[in-house]
Every structure is written in C-alpha cells, then in structure tokens.
Design brief:
With about 350 residues, the chain is α/β, with parallel strands linked by helices. It has eleven helices and 17 strands.
C-alpha cells in the first residue's frame, strides 16, 4: 500500500490490528485517507510495517503515550479498540480492566481529540446494550430504542464499560463541538480471529467455524433447536464501508445501526455454507436436531437512518459474503490475525 500525506487528511485508528481495524485500514487507504494505525500489538506493528502503513504502538490506557501521535492535520479519529469477553480467559477476568480499557481508554482518546482539535470521532459499539427484552419482539430495533442491558452474565462488565464510552463520546461531542458518531453493530462475520473465542472463560470454536470445517470435509452440519430462528448479522467489509462513508460526511452524527437489516436463520446459514464450501463430490448434508437447544436469539435492526444520512447500504448478501470470505481465506493475507488470535487472551504487554 502507498499513502500520500495531505494536509488535514489524517485518520488515526485505535485498535488497528484487531479484526475490524485491519479491514478498516485497507478500506480507508483505498478511499484516499492517510491512515495512522495504532494498537498495543507487536504482531500488528510487524504487519503494518510490511504494508507500508504508519504504525504507532500505543496503550490507550496510558495518556503519555499519545504524545507519539500527530498534533495537527487530523481529519478524524476512529476508535475500534476494546476489551471484551471473547478475548478474555477465565484466569484473566477482571472488572477493573474493562473499565480501564473501555472507559478510561476512551476518555484518553477523546482528550487527544480535544487537545489537538480533531473535529471527528467515530466509535464502534456492540448491539448488546439493548439485550433480549428488545431482541425477541419481532420488531426492528431503532436507534432511539432504550437501553436494556443485563447486569448478570459474562458480558455485563463489557456492556457497562461500553455504555460509559458511548456516553463520553456524546458528552465530549456536545461540550467541545466534535462530530461524534457511534456505529452500533450486531455480530460481525469475516475471515479473522473471531471464529475461535472465549465462552465463559473457555476457548471454543464458533458454530460458524464448525459449519465451514464440516462442509469442507464433507461432514454433516447439525442444526440444533428451531432452524428458522433468524438474527441480523453483518459482513466486516460492509461495516468498514459504512465507517468510511461516515468519515466523508460533515452531517453524520450520533448513533447509527450498521447491520444487514434482514434475518439470517441457522438453516439459511448451513445451506449457504454447504453451497460455497462443500465439494460437489462429497456434498455435506444438514441434520436437524430440534431436541438440542441452541443459543441463538432473534433480533433485527432498522438501518434506515444510515441509509438516509450516509447513503450507505450493505452490499453483501450472505452467499456473497461467504464467497468473499473464502477468497480472503485462500489469499492468506490476513493470516496474521489468526496468529494473533492464538494469543487471544488480553495482556498488557502482548507478544512478550
């Protein structure tokens, strides 16, 4: 990648060596922004050095380290750095770390924006702030829906700290005249480390990865519970296209749902994966297991605000997403993400 530095065209990305961050750097460079990638990861640093992208290794919980970033010419800041349960082993769980990384880290980023007059801050948030009481209504969830978080379970501290971050973005935007944008996303699919996560502190493969592995091997795909249960998912490349379009606009502000706006059922997921990944000579079959419960909760998001204000719409159908996923998997260009995912446990000094 080649970048040409132009006045007031710098975008600083915090969390640039994570899943969404890595795809985002590609997209923003392609769209003509000058990107400065920042992260705590040494693997990310090595990756971006090979790509010719300016990288600053930085811990967002340490305000002094922000001195290494530019003080002028910043057009926008994108914050996709976070600590979440999918990256935390049972031995590493610490509520204080959630507040330190997700809340204090966000304040440090906002203070950087304020000091250096960065006019725009974009933060990505999980959809979990609206929780199941709104998910299972069968209605589209709009941006003005009330929060409804659960204060129990493994995601409680993550969502509490994320809500602090969202409120801080709103506070700094209103108090200091920044253009504050929050992109709320449901589960984000794409080739990267999220096919193996921690669940209640134990490392597990996601159902998506199990389906793909079984389809490649010609093995049956088991669909548990209600096969028609549908939920809203989004492809990572659609997420980063929305972020890029938001950065180009001077009118986009506040909270936006960045989702597909349509349900994807387990049955549709299994059929799509078989079509794309299974060999015609050893075609996988679906085995329905209504006797085995699944953990899928139905939810749908209204994306009309993003369509109206940004001119954005998701471009990938589920099958198109799978075809592109397969292409990225075969290209191996994001394999560093998988290697990084092998050490998915959060550490203050990663890759020692």
């Amino acid at each position: 990648m080649k970048q040409s530095l132009e006045v007031n065209n710098i975008v600083v990305i915090f969390g640039a060596s994570g899943f969404i961050g890595t795809y985002l750097v590609d997209r923003l460079v392609e769209d003509g922004f000058y990107v400065i990638a920042t992260d705590i990861s040494r693997k990310g640093e090595a990756y971006y050095k090979k790509q010719g992208i300016t990288f600053v290794r930085l811990d967002i919980t340490k305000e002094k380290e922000f001195e290494a970033l530019p003080k002028t010419g910043v057009r926008a800041v994108v914050h996709v750095a976070c600590l979440q349960p999918a990256n935390v082993s049972e031995q590493k769980y610490d509520p204080k770390e959630y507040m330190k990384v997700n809340a204090l880290g966000t304040i440090n980023i906002l203070e950087y924006c304020k000091r250096n007059m960065a006019p725009k801050i974009l933060y990505t948030s999980s959809h979990l702030e609206v929780d199941e009481c709104l998910w299972e209504t069968g209605r589209y969830i709009r941006e003005d829906a009330p929060r409804a978080i659960s204060y129990t379970g493994e995601y409680a501290m993550y969502i509490i700290s994320q809500n602090v971050a969202i409120d801080c973005v709103a506070h700094y935007s209103q108090k200091h005249g920044m253009q504050g944008i929050v992109c709320r996303v449901p589960p984000v699919y794409g080739y990267g480390p999220h096919t193996e996560i921690f669940k209640n502190g134990k490392q597990v493969k996601t159902g998506f990865k199990i389906f793909i592995e079984n389809a490649i091997a010609g093995k049956p795909l088991e669909v548990w519970g209600d096969c028609k249960t549908g939920r809203d998912i989004i492809y990572v490349k659609d997420v980063v296209s929305a972020i890029s379009m938001a950065l180009k606009s001077d009118k986009v502000t506040g909270l936006y749902n960045i989702a597909s706006g349509r349900p994807l059922s387990l049955e549709q997921e299994a059929k799509g994966i078989i079509k794309v990944f299974s060999s015609r000579a050893h075609l996988s079959e679906i085995r329905y297991r209504p006797d085995r419960p699944n953990s899928i909760k139905p939810f749908l998001y209204d994306i009309s605000k993003a369509k109206k204000d940004m001119g954005w719409s998701p471009q990938y159908s589920f099958e198109e997403m799978l075809l592109d996923y397969k292409k990225e998997m075969q290209s191996a260009r994001f394999d560093f993400l998988l290697k990084k995912g092998e050490q998915i446990v959060y550490q203050k000094e990663e890759d020692k």
